[in-house]
Amino acid sequence: xxxxxxxxxxxxxxxxxxxxxxxxxxxxxxxxxxxxxxxxxxxxxxxxxxxxxxxxxxxxxxxxxxxxxxxxxxxxxxxxxxxxxxxxxxxxxxxxxxxxxxxxxxxxxxxxxxxxxxxxxxxxxxxxxxxxxxxxxxxxxxxxxxxxxxxxxxxxxxxxxxxxxxxxxxxxxxxxxxxxxxxxxxxxxxxxxxxxxxxxxxxxxxxxxxxxxxxxxxxxxxxxxxxxxxxxxxxxxxxxxxxxxxxxxxxxxxxxxxxxxxxxxxxxxxxxxxxxxxxxxxxxxxxxxxxxxxxxxxxxxxxxxxxxxxxxxxxxxxxxxxxxxxxxxxxxxxxxxxxxxxxxxxxxxxxxxxxxxxxxxxxxxxxxxxxx
Amino acid sequence: xxxxxxxxxxxxxxxxxxxxxxxxxxxxxxxxxxxxxxxxxxxxxxxxxxxxxxxxxxxxxxxxxxxxxxxxxxxxxxxxxxxxxxxxxxxxxxxxxxxxxxxxxxxxxxxxxxxxxxxxxxxxxxxxxxxxxxxxxxxxxxxxxxxxxxxxxxxxxxxxxxxxxxxxxxxxxxxxxxxxxxxxxxxxxxxxxxxxxxxxxxxxxxxxxxxxxxxxxxxxxxxxxxxxxxxxxxxxxxxxxxxxxxxxxxxxxxxxxxxxxxxxxxxxxxxxxxxxxxxxxxxxxxxxxxxxxxxxxxxxxxxxxxxxxxxxxxxxxxxxxxxxxxxxxxxxxxxxxxxxxxxxxxxxxxxxxxxxxxxxxxxxxxxxxxxx
Lengths: 372, 372
Known about the structure:
The structure is a homodimer.
Chain A: E1 6-10, H1 14-25, E2 29-34, E3 48-50, H2 56-63, E4 68-71, H3 78-86, E5 90-91, H4 95-102, H5 104-113, E6 121-124, E7 139-143, E8 153-156, H6 159-163, E9 170-174, E10 178-188, E11 194-196, E12 200-204, E13 211-216, H7 222-238, E14 243-252, E15 257-263, H8 273-276, H9 281-289, E16 303-309, H10 312-315, H11 318-326, E17 331-335, E18 346-353, H12 357-371
Parallel strand pairs in A: 1-2, 1-4, 2-3, 4-5
Antiparallel strand pairs in A: 6-9, 7-8, 7-9, 10-11, 10-12, 10-14, 12-13, 13-16, 14-15, 16-18, 17-18
Helix pairs in contact in A: 1-9, 2-3, 3-4
Protein name (chains A, B): N5-carboxyaminoimidazole ribonucleotide synthase
InterPro entries (chains A, B): ATP-grasp, ATP-grasp_carboxylate-amine, ATP_grasp_subdomain_1, PreATP-grasp_dom_sf, PurK, PurK_C, PurT/PurK_preATP-grasp, Rudment_hybrid_motif
Pathway (chains A, B): Purine metabolism; IMP biosynthesis via de novo pathway; 5-amino-1-(5-phospho-D-ribosyl)imidazole-4-carboxylate from 5-amino-1-(5-phospho-D-ribosyl)imidazole (N5-CAIR route): step 1/2
């Protein structure tokens, strides 16, 4: 039975911990690998392996005796996963899928080759190549690999910005004039079954490219939302995905959809599914990679998700603030229990649920006041 | 912050695992103690302590360095908990509360002394004392200590049954003519705040005293349900409870409420709160013992919970049956991943949620067909 299946997760952060939360519901054993010995997941498994998922040797060692491996971050060693696959370990999403997505330019080319609309962009080797774009500013510059949560992304507005730009292989993208940013979580299993969550609308802080809050269901035209879920399903099929995938999209001023970025794993934009959906994205991932039937992705009620970021403001009377937050009915705190102290990083989130979107927004406003 | 709090749980079964599930949401570390090295919880913590919670020495050893200890079973060594309390470890529920409840006769006397109506009963030392009740049959016989899930309970109908009865300190109870069995989960924190869940109706299999299924909200007269929640609050206050408590009650043919049994911990009759309530009983327990504000216990939608028992029927094509169950929208599987094979024991449960009680009952009927 399920308890005899040995599942491994590459990455031991909050996403991994939320996978373990659902692994408990299926009685599964989960082995976790993270390079930080104090990663959140290290507390919630008897099988924690301290090692870098980017290391060939470390992954080979970790994979011994496991039945299935999945990921909670993309920066993993693909060659090692291919090697383990040859040894009989099932790797979901497939190494090919992860590899395509790991590199933002390869990802874009893949999508284009499958006739999926994307944000136009070109590849450059390093900073020196940027000067040819001087007359095309403003532009968005993204590192091809290893960016996350706004790290590895910057907007170039002036020539001065070029001088301060990343000196690494990057994608240079047009700054699209966007009306909305949405995200669709889609799951697909090895039998080709696909389940799409309702699109969520994401609102980003302008400075840092960090998500400010997200609302589900997205409060935009239903026809666009329907197209977005169809598009997400097409991406999942094109990738022959087994697992779950976040498809972040732009809705342009002309109501066109452009795929911005993919993440082949549980995603921030699916946190709300724990409380607000019939099947959470974490349970859906486990169902997909274990060959179980996919669950109903239906939304039960409106929700809003806000990240909690490390910072001086929160640190003043943190316990008091969290207590006041916990006193709001329908405010679901997820506190990641991270060690250390790096201003700006995500240390928790709150999902607010209620019967109407208006109530959800009103509660979220109270929470924002408490946390700031 | 919360992640620096070291919480210990005595007992490492499925209830403990469901507490860990919620501990993840608060970023807490949880140390678990169980005498079975392969208990479900052993997989979900980096801090598993193999030892018997009934042992004085084992608990003292386990408690070193912990901030708070709570329980997921009553059979724990009270003297050791008192000793740890003197050393500064916070024990919730208090050792006095657990001690009163551990013994079914002491429990009954305590409730009577607080004017809480109970099933009438008397204490006996052992089997020889039973013969004086020969002319009062039928009666219900319950071991004073360590009974659970129908173990330690039997109905005496004939003189022959007396010969086959437990030979241990027991409570002899009248067989009350009951209309319904209900359970109310109530939480109370150290500041005296009380939160009551809606009563659930429990339906037991007649032979084995094992729960067949439970429905929330209970489909009985609203006035009775209101009285039941008031009664549960009174019991929590009388016990000066800090934690959560299941108050199992009988509704007699005359619509009177009688308290049947108490359990000062998460309880089977609160499993449905994971999916169906705003705050689950597991989260509520953590909030109560950590001095956080109690959460909203409100029910979001109707639900029905069924235990899954080990047995020959299930074992025929178990994986196929679970797959068909997972294919029903709103059927939430909790598979405990227990080792071994003892027919009749609980190895999982399913919570069914839907918008109407009729839909919930119809889905439950399909599930029963699948599992049988």
